[in-house]
Specification:
Blueprint (H helix, E strand, L loop, with lengths): L1 H17 L13 E5 L5 E2 L4 E8 L3 E8 L6 E4 L9 E6 L7 E11 L4 E10 L7 E5 L3 E3 L5 E3 L1 E5 L5 E3 L7 E4 L5 E3 L4 E4 L3 E8 L4 E8 L2 H6 L1
Parallel strand pairs: 2-8, 10-18
Antiparallel strand pairs: 1-3, 3-6, 4-5, 4-7, 7-8, 9-12, 11-16, 12-13, 14-17, 15-16, 17-18
Length: about 220
Amino acid sequence: MNMMHHGWRVAGILILAAGFVASAAGAQQSAVRIVSPAAGRVVQPGQTVTIAVAADSSVARLALLGQHPLPINQVVAPGLGVARPAEFQVRIPTDIQPGPYRVTAIGSLAGGETVSESLVLDVEKSDEPTRIWAKPATILFSHAGERIPVRVLGAFGDGTQETLTRSSRTAYTSADPRVATVSGDGLVTAVGPGKTSIQIRTRTRDFSIPVTVANASNDAEE
C-alpha cells in the first residue's frame, strides 16, 4: 500500500506541476467525474469536506490529489458510478491562506491510461476583516514595464491576521490604467509616466496604494 501511495504521489506531482490532464478518447473522458461538491464551493479553514467521485467499471484505481497545502493524497477503490460514488474526506487546514485551491481526481484504467477531472474549492474565513492593508503601501516605478506584486493583509476580530491576496473576496482596480494596471492576483504593472492609485476592496473594507511611474525620457535628459 505504501508503494501504491508513493506511485500516486509522484504521478500527481507531475500532473499538477505541468497542469496536464491526461485522458483517453471518446467515452473514457467521462470515466471519472467529481459528483460533489460543485466547483467554486466556499469552504472554511478547519472544515471537513466530502468529495464524491464517480468512476465506471473501466477504472482500476482511483486517487484524489490536492494543491498544496491541501493534505490530500488518498487512494481508494473505485465506486460504481453516480449511484455509488467513492467518497474522500478532506479536512481544510486551519492555517491555510484564503483563496482558490485545485483538487484533482485521477483514475487509472486497465490499459495503463489515466483519466482525471478537477474542481476548485474556494477557501475563505467565515467573518470579514476589521482592517486591511497592503505591502508595499506605496509604489514607485522607474520606467514603464516594471512589475511589483502586492501582498494584501487583513486583521480579524479574533486577533488573527491573514494574507488575502488571492481571496475571491479581494478585488483590485486601477484609477488610471494608462499609468498602471493591476491583475486579479495583485500584480501591478507600470504602463506610462504619471500618478495613479491601486484600489483594493473586500466586502467591507478598502485600501489605496499611491503609484508613481517616472518619466524615463525626462530622467535621462536631466
